[in-house]
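does this look right to u?? adenosine-5'-triphosphate version
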Amino acid sequence: MALLDVENLSIDFGVDGRKLPAVSELSFSIGKGEILALVGESGCGKSVTCLSLARLLPSPPAIINGKILFHDGNSRDPLEVLKLKPRELRKLRGGKIAYVFQEPSVSLNPVFRIGNQIEEAIRLHRPELRDTESEVIKLLKQVGIPAPETRINSYPHEMSGGMQQRVMIAMALASSPDLLIADEPTTALDVTIQSQILELLKELRDNTGMTIIIVTHNLGIVSEMADNVIVMYAGHSVESSSVKNVISSPIHPYTKALLSAVPEIGKSVENLCSIRGNVPTPSEFPRGCRFFGRCDLCDALSHEEKSLCETDVPVWREERPGHFCRCHHAGKSLEKGTLS
Ligand SMILES: Nc1ncnc2c1ncn2[C@@H]1O[C@H](COP(=O)(O)OP(=O)(O)OP(=O)(O)O)[C@@H](O)[C@H]1O
Ligand SMILES: [Mg+2]
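got this back:
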């Protein structure tokens, strides 16, 4: 059963009279209880995609088109997010979708005790609840904070980065969301703490059936906890399938390059330095394939084949059962510098 269907989503930013395409032609579906990872380098459109799911991008400058369908199970028809009225939108944001952002300072107020902040979140989302303090303790326990009864009196700065992140997850859980979106929840933390937080998210999914979107640069992280992956590049989805398919038999040259930047799956690598050049910004996206200019496969092609990459946007196609890719030359691959 799908929780969310995204159809042909595009997000443009109107800047100085120009329309900059941050995300284009993005379609995907998330099943209930699934963990979906959005992966790609900085600037690929992961965060704006996540924010658009609850219409949290200020508009203008953002112009969002396409369809976002949220199957909340309460009504027969799905909620069509891009058409919701303000009141329905508040409900969606308040109860059904919750975010955990990378920076604790965005979500945690330094001058209030963490217990009060979580209590506030509970009051906002579940005003009918009487005993908020025991709910706070329950939530803190759920996210693995030791001695929650005393911890409720701590200020954020009295906690480690990992503990702060657990508090943010507890706050997100206060509304019992159907969908939790964790936008790079761990990059500021060291590797051991990172994997503990991801393990926690996975546990929460296993125990509550919550659906999770996790945003990350790190394909290693994905292999440990996600079910499905969407690889994004310069505002396009370039590959999507189960974690197993994407990691063991990637199709798109960008995915292959990302994987080669993770020397050992399971060990985190922050710098994807093996891909030459940078992700173009929306004002400089190539006309055809957006990976043009950085693609090893393209470099090895004939002049004619290459010109297709340069001039035509590749179509999003199911190349193998359940395995989607956006590449004109998905059937070809480069093994040790030789085209096959
Ligand atoms: N308010 C805005 N106005 C104009 N352009 C924007 C705005 N917000 C984001 N963008 C652009 O949209 C593109 C996608 O940005 P986004 O933040 O989604 O990338 P990301 O994949 O999350 O990167 P990172 O990994 O660094 O977080 C970028 O080119 C960014 O400059
Ligand atoms: Mg981001």
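The mean pLDDT is 90. idk if thats expected tbh
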